[in-house]
Fold:
Amino acid sequence: PTGLAIDAETPLKQLSLTLAEDLQRLAPFGNGNPTPRFLSRNLVVAEDRRIGREGTHRRLTVQSADGAKVPVIWFNGGDVEIPTGPIDLVYTMGINEYRGERTLQLQFVALRAAEEMSKAPLPGDAPCWGVEDLRSQPSPSAALPTSDRAFWYVEGTVLADGIAYTPRMNAASVAKGQPLVLWTAPPSAELLQWLVDTTAPSAIYLCGQATTDDTLPGLLRNVAGMCKYALQRNGLLQINRMAARLGTTEAVIRHSLLWLESRGQIRLEEWDPDGTPVDTVRITPGNGQPASDDGRPTTDDSMILQAEMDEQLAEVRAYRRFFLRAKVRELGL
Structure:
């Protein structure tokens, strides 16, 4: 996708288990950057297999012109159409541990039909706005514009008295040019940039209050509670609203739902039902038993998904720490 951040372009033959192990030693990426993303060009899909319940996930084997082959796990990609011909693939590197054997495994981020390299346009003039850095203040409310004169970004389940929940989606409906108050530390650099681009603020107030529970037990408890609430009504869940309520990324929410399904707690019945907003899923009650496509109990899917969630939450926590201590220019503001 346009604007997708790539850390390095790498030929497939240069990837190795040793490189993946070296990257894991850097986790949880304390400089605040997410897991490094790599790009490999002009690959062919040598194998394409559906995995998981009802084939909702995908396991690809991609191959480069020099014969190098690597497996790729693509969660929730079972129904996505892959372009014919060579592809450019963006991925993160991971390690698959199965029955005592460790092998290199890529995690899908994005793909497109292979394209020729193009030069990026020169950047335009940098935007101009004032930044008020209040991150070191435990209670900065008195120094902030009121919510009727600014857009406050406030998410999570740990909100102080007098601080109103104001999710990311609301930024799209406010008038541009108002001050932007970042009361909650965003879960990712991408969301921070989206908030700034969407609101085009006249000033930015950095607060970075701790308003979220970024632990795996806390996340799963909250998501399970949302599922229980939805099942008592129409069974519909909106991914972006769930992410905003918990102050996390949409990827974390999708993985948590897939994990709950893999454990038999819910069933992801239909994505984007007719008449619903984009990225809505209809759920039904699970049978309480983890099951593979042939109905036999398995824990492979849930183990993979849990490892992915651990990694994603580590990235979220690392970025919030980075947001709190980085210099303003390091935040891209």
In short: The chain has a mean pLDDT of 87. Residues 279 and 321 are 29 Å apart (CA to CA). The two ends are 23 Å apart (CA to CA). The chain is about 25% helix and 25% strand.
